[in-house]
């Protein structure tokens, strides 16, 4: 679906913004025939997106009938109060519930993958109410999403960090700002980069590419390691941002490498003003989300040693560093609140697409693509 996101990008002449992806029909066709799809996706996107951009921007009209959205299980089994979508996001007509008794009345049911993947949480009884939609929600990477095969042909809509999801909620995104007084540049003054390079890692596994990269890199440059294997770390996000502000660079190394899998590691660094050194999908993929100079990609250098030399050079040369920071004048950042924003975004899309049908035939293959 690269084509699709490219066209979308061109049309909006900026990075892929969330909230406008409701072209599940497109994905269906695609699942069956990739070759044809490559050709026709661009065309279909052009036609449908042209219309949808006009149609679907902004909140749905208050006059549309309301939606009842049932949250089948709280993600990772952790209860969180459900949001009031109007109060928090100015989205009309959403009733969220976690009461399974509401199943028959629900317009849609949202399932968090990790919690249903093991098969120990019963799914609702079939046949499901006519026109009810089942939503597959997942923000883990394919490598950490076991058991997807069993869900081929089960769901109607996808809700993930991938730009080609039906309901698109990335880990973060940039918002173009004409007025620099509202841009990320304002946070640049908070930066106190007295230290060179940090890495925070919670799940340490020698089998991860990021760990072997770390082993290579630290032979050439000092890396301050935090997390289970390093210095202890308070979990609160504010503390994390405070820590990152002290650093010139931050290692934003994903646990696995997959399309669009660009997580809060990058966005926290961006927020704090530390220049992210990224390991994840290709540079080209990152450039759908960030200006090219906003990050340093490990693939930019043939060896870890050359990357280390570049970081040292930047540390001693503020003029050179500016190259990686000046883009901040033109953007602000948004990081979603888990999971309230996901639910409310789902509701918004459901209201706009009421009456349409769709099926996710090949969940596993799509998510790995
Ligand atoms: C930029 O925003 C600030 C504060 O929001 C405002 O005072 C200023 O007039 C704005 N400047 C322009 C050029 O719009
Ligand atoms: C940590 O990484 C291992 C190895 O990839 C993986 O099996 C495990 O699920 C991960 N744990 C978490 C909490 O993501
Ligand atoms: C939802 O998906 C199921 C299973 O693929 C399908 O039978 C049903 O018709 C779909 N419903 C809608 C409203 O799209």
UniProtKB/TrEMBL annotation:
InterPro entries per UniProt: Glyco_tran_10_C, Glyco_tran_10_N, Glyco_trans_10, GT10-like_C_sf
Top-level taxon: Eukaryota
Leader sequence residues: none
GO biological process, one term: inflammatory response
Record's bilayer topology term: Single-pass type II membrane protein
UniProt-listed SUPFAM superfamilies: UDP-Glycosyltransferase/glycogen phosphorylase
UniProt-annotated location(s): Golgi apparatus membrane; Golgi apparatus, Golgi stack membrane
Main location: Golgi
Keyword set, alphabetical order: Glycoprotein, Glycosyltransferase, Golgi apparatus, Inflammatory response, Membrane, Signal-anchor, Transferase, Transmembrane, Transmembrane helix
Ranges annotated as spanning the membrane: 34-56
Domain Fucosyltransferase C-terminal: 195-366
Name of the protein in its database record: Fucosyltransferase
Lineage: Eukaryota, Metazoa, Chordata, Craniata, Vertebrata
